[in-house]
């Protein structure tokens, strides 16, 4: 039987076998402020909120325990269920659109093209612009410019603003959300594509493989990990959709594009604090599922939190 | 959690290469042979999806009211009407909202850099101790708690503490940056050999001095990455300030744009002048420092 050797690290990270060193007290002081603000501003509110989700608290005044009544109500509330349906559907559609476009752009930008640097600079611009501000710009384009263009060319379906159409408004949200998140995915794909050695493509080309075949048999398998990570991170971001929807439709028309975040925030002004905390707890479970997928996807490929 | 554990245990995690500042990717593009013009042209057309909304913003912001109302967003502005900016400046109280946005972003960046680098240093150098390992996973737990999940109690808490104002917004921006930043820093710190610290210590430096004089400078490239992410997340945020800050007079630049949705709904030229003033700072800074920004963002995003 082997004897486990305890390795202790010196203060500067040097390993001294067989001796368990003391931790310098100052390291606790380095860590403490971060733990404190995190506990006070994230964990504590989370626990308090979870607690109230089992009560009939309206945001002020007295309250009493109601058990899982709020949770039952959440699962049978058509407006909340519609918000989940919209949010998850929107997230899935947007992630596909954004990943396909980002990957296509990355393939183009890493190819034999002119003005690669300038083009890349342009494509990354959306990343530095505030989502709500650019969404106001798009709101104008969708509700004024697009209908007037459609009218002048006589294209009936777009003569009315798509933002006012309950069955089309979501497409505008997909477009703007993709517009804003494509650069992040694009940078990751560019970095991924640059790790693929040229020789692979050259050898495949010599063997007579078509460009599509080279993409399918070389590029795609080698960047599959990036696709998975980008997709999971994308879904995670889109699930929290709020800013862009506020600017484009404010959840409308009616409640056609209300996201889960919007329903939760309505608990602040709407007087159903405890009820929306139950909703938030359900949303938390959804986030955990996606985050676990993220951890699964990042296994053995280093770590990423976003 | 196994992946995280493994990455933290190894001296050089899979993700991070020590940054020497000199390294260059082997190649940026496949430049052998003649340029592929069809692809170049296709990308230029695709770039219009970015350029056109920005062009419309600039064009609209320079139109007078009747030009703006005629509905053709693409028509160039003539005669140019710079008066819109004066009006937008006044309506949004631009110097105030800009100043608040800048202050919130500055506090967020400074707080994120200092708090998470200190914490990451403590964690990386004491990884053999359970309490530091657990603290790390505890901080990572933030990834399960996006703002909407904890928003309602946080709104109550900040009101209770009297920080339902830009101070509270900056604090929340910091805490939502922490887990990502601590992760980046601690992975990077594991890749820095301890010899430099050891020799400084032999010369009598305290841990505090070692951190500020040796570790902080070494963290340079990571600071840029963490700082850029923290700045953009804070500067561009709408969700948190709009919900946390109670007094509309203390709102940040993205939030005050909502006045054009109600009161001045049809003055598109003035609204767009305001949008342009809200967007321009980051776009201009980006265009002048893009090599830096792109490297920083790629490094933060890809730890491969």
TrEMBL record, chain A:
Residues 84-294 form the ABC transmembrane type-1 domain. This is Sugar ABC transporter permease. Gene3D superfamilies: MetI-like. GO terms for cellular component: plasma membrane. The keyword Lipid metabolism does not apply. PROSITE patterns: ABC_TM1. Belongs to the binding-protein-dependent transport system permease family. Keywords: Cell membrane, Membrane, Transmembrane, Transmembrane helix, Transport. It is found in: Cell membrane. It comes from Streptomyces sulfonofaciens. The chain crosses the membrane at residues 26-54, 86-109, 121-142, 168-194, 215-233, 273-297.
Automatic annotation (TrEMBL), chain B:
One of its GO terms (biological process) is transmembrane transport. Keywords: Cell membrane, Membrane, Transmembrane, Transmembrane helix, Transport. This is ABC transporter permease. It comes from Streptomyces sulfonofaciens. Residues 98-289 form the ABC transmembrane type-1 domain. The chain crosses the membrane at residues 37-56, 98-124, 136-155, 167-189, 210-233, 270-288. Gene3D superfamilies: MetI-like (1.10.3720.10). PANTHER family: ABC TRANSPORTER PERMEASE PROTEIN MG189-RELATED, ABC TRANSPORTER PERMEASE PROTEIN MG189-RELATED-RELATED. The keyword Transmembrane applies. Pfam families: BPD_transp_1. Belongs to the binding-protein-dependent transport system permease family. InterPro entries: MetI-like, MetI-like_sf.
